[in-house]
Amino acid sequence: MREKVVLAYSGGLDTSVSIRWIQENYGMDVITLTVDLGQGKDLDGIRDKALSAGACKAVVIDAREIFVKYFVFPALQAGAIYEGEYPLATALGRPLIAKLLVDVAEHEGAVAVAHGCTGKGNDQVRFDVSIHMLAPGLRIIAPAREWKMSRAEEIEYARKRDIPVPSTEGSPYSIDQNLWGRSIEAGVLEDPWVEPPEEVYEWTVSADRAPDQPQYVEISFEKGIPVALDSTPITGVDLTLKINSIAGQHGIGRIDHLENRLVGIKSREIYEAPAATVLHRAHQALEDLTLSKDTARFKSIVSREYSDLIYNGLWFSALHRDLRAFVLSSQQYVTGTIRMKLFKGVCSVVGRRSPYSLYSLPLATYGQDDQFDHDAAPGFIKIHALPHLTQAKTQSFQQKPMPEASPSIIPPKIGKESIKTAK
Ligand code: ARG
Fold first, then answer.
1. Is the Cβ atom of 178 under 6 angstroms away from ligand 1?
2. Out of 3.40.50.150, 3.40.50.1010, 3.40.50.620, 3.90.78.10, which CATH number does the structure's domain 4-170 have?
């Protein structure tokens, strides 16, 4: 009996060619695994394609609910946005696909798993690291990293073997999508000076073609998880799909990010992430209302670490488990409703309320009911300023400039006269 490998299969050219390439170069039977993360593709069509390209079995798993529950919403609670721009759709999908590859490999008695990533992106790292962590010793085959074919050679390879070349191969763009967002790279986008052509966008209209009337939505959260839209309970998957569509119609969620890849390259990426944009904004607004200043401040540090570890493929790490414990604890009172206005490419928070709101009107008001103790202020200011006044008296740098405190960290170049050669 031939050995078996489970290949993560999208239905695109790379993974279709991979089926045949693995058979020819490794002599293994290929089982494909297509994971539905809400990418909105025809899954029956993909299954047929896998079989006609030579797979011995084509598995399809609807993982949308798991994706939202275990990956997307935890990342939302964590405020995980890579470099302050990218809500991490692809990066969140990879560890889940890796996990399902490992599970299916076990079910099928496969000796290896495979994916279609090239050797210069982040996704190969995310797959490989996740697989190693979940199933140490399981072999990984990455055909597109190993075969060293150019695009043209790959198409030629496919044609010779009657593997259908998708019509989208005419498109210069490389696209990945799931329900948390869509990523577009390559083609004219490789020039960071070039404005993205309208054709790269599929989920969002351009702001100047958005409706002239604003639309309001109310999103309710329980412990940091969105649970209702306009007071109607809704599942995470449905909510995300719905907000993608509503906010996309208002031109919200276009992101043009010049990002730092893990593998050391800067790359220009266009993202469409309407739901992620709206939900992160709303979640942040609810935290503004319900977290203490200190927790909010510390959480912003955690958010940054969290987004980096997701981006860097370390979802299944101990650091993640530890940060998750902090995030979960921080979400205890992040319950309430945020009112958002969607208008011409902008989503603004226009209302917020929570049973655990830390906003106190008697303390905040400038009106008659003011309960803030004004007489306590001068004492507070005195102590607050104390160390600074002490310093000003003895060092008085506020009055005198400090030319000697040069910020340079490199000593000046050594003069010729200082270089003495021994005779
Ligand atoms: N740069 C993003 C990331 O590393 C998206 C990559 C998605 N791949 C693509 N072919 N567009 O997560």
1. no
2. 3.40.50.620
